Task: structure prediction
Amino acid sequence: MGRVGGSCAIAAMLAAGALFPASAAPPERLEPCLACHGTEGQSETPEVPSLGAQRSPYTLIQLFMFREGLRVAEPMTALAKEFSDQDLQSTADFIATLPPPSPPADPGEAARMEQGRALAEQHRCNVCHRADFSGQDSVPRLADQREDYLLKTLREYKSGARHAYDATMAEVLQPVGDAQIVELAYYLAHTR
Amino acid sequence: MTSILSRSRTLLFAVAGLLAAPWAVPAQQAPTAQPAPAAQPQTPPPWAQGRPDTEGAAKLAPVVPPPIAAAADKLPVSQLKVPKNFNIEVYAGGMANARSLRIGEKGTVFVSTRLLDKIYAVVDKDGKREVKTLVSGLYRPNGIALHDGTLYIAELNKVSKIDNVEARLDNPPKPILIYDDLPSDEPHGWKFLTVGPDNKLYFNVGAPCNVCVPSSAHAQIRRINLDGSGAEVVARGTRQIVGMDWHPVLKQLYFTENQRDWLSEDLPQDKLNRLTHPGQDNFGFPYCGGGNVPDPQFGWGHSCDEFTKPIALLGPHSAPLGMRFYTGNMFPREYHNAIFIARHGSWNKTTKIGGDIVVAKLNADGTVKSIEPFITGFLVNNNYIGRPVDIELMKDGSILISDDWNGAVYRVTYGSPRVSMRR
Result:
């Protein structure tokens, strides 16, 4: 799970080395982050999530977990290492102001979209993540997230490869099979 | 005031109901648990029963505590309400996700975490409290217990120990593994740990789901010897337990038990249980919820009468966690051998309940006489300003309460504040 982002990750590491310890305003400090995650809230990097309009309490938890080594995904652990609690908070707050990712041009196959919608309701994804999947509080935004990232993340929650902050996703995914995970990722990536 | 009174009445009603007609379900509550046969096409499948589709219901989501402790000046202690002549103060803060509490012979307060990887130790030096991280790198280390100077730690899938821990606070060794024959499921994988009068370690293995038929290794209380040998199952049919303690006279194990989500706003109720037949008692999960509601999905072919009943109902989704018998000398006599119970508070309910400490007073035979609020105020305008987790008794008879939302521990004393501060 460690290698993501390829050359953009290396660029981010180098940029981070040049920037830290930084006293600059959050946007400048976050340049290395946005190199992979996209400057406009939309990631063009395989398996790297779009961050636009992500919920600040969720991002704070993830950054904290990277810093503490509770969630492992290089280069995030190295990048978050020098962040103070205040840095984590201001970064999370800034990320929430990025524009939400755009829906893909392809609207999604109607039958798969309907199947995905039914699955999302069956497992109550739409309750915690809200009906438009914009998230709330520590529950992340999912709408128009990269499909490859959603698929990878759901599989990692299901297998336990990704240690979540709490057990909610493991519990929700307990009765969900891989074929259903594929459909959920497709639906959420295309939802608009 | 009104809400405290009405909550009090609800609780008293629940207890009274149990005493008068122990297993009767109040008529107005029963229909929720009656599903129609699945064959009818218009009938929603089991997962959809009670599925919220209203605007209010769309806000239901687990309440996740922040990973960073609240600053000292942000702790809500002045908003917490205590009974007359009681006082509450901050004992120590800065301990993100503070969970289970244990106190050593020398007065060290050990504080576990569930979502972080740490156990903290709080040392009191002439009234100044120093918080240090005793151990890091643990996984879901919610359960801690002390016995003969040894700290036992229950993580998600193992139990370990640190001998003579209070002499080694500044340079603690790595915990020594004593038991790991445990499943690794995340749902309800965190544990509560206690040592019984038989000098054995008792802990729960939760159900790996909201509701499901558990394996023979799940949904139970186990006990092991202090060296990890001799594992036995002493109770079954328990969904998730995050608080246990021993009756000081009867020496029986009492525990809180959290019931399933998504059945309805008002059912099933979380429970206070008593283990009277170790190895034989089954508390009903997943067949019967709250001691009186057949599960609409799994309850078919079963009756709630097959299972060991709760001794009190603690409110739907209210999440009763830590509980301790009060055996101290500071509080008035009416609290002697009563149980303080921390209700962490609901998330799976539109109008939240809990976020308080209630006190259960018992009859001589160990049954529940009354339940009433003791400390309230963690829940303000349907939002938590703190969430109580565990309770521990100090040598002087005061009690400590942990708050995993703010990462703090509070201390409750009785009598003139000036006197209690000097103790």
Notes: The longest strand of chain B covers residues 128-135. DSSP finds two helices and 28 strands in chain B. The longest helix of chain B spans residues 2-20.
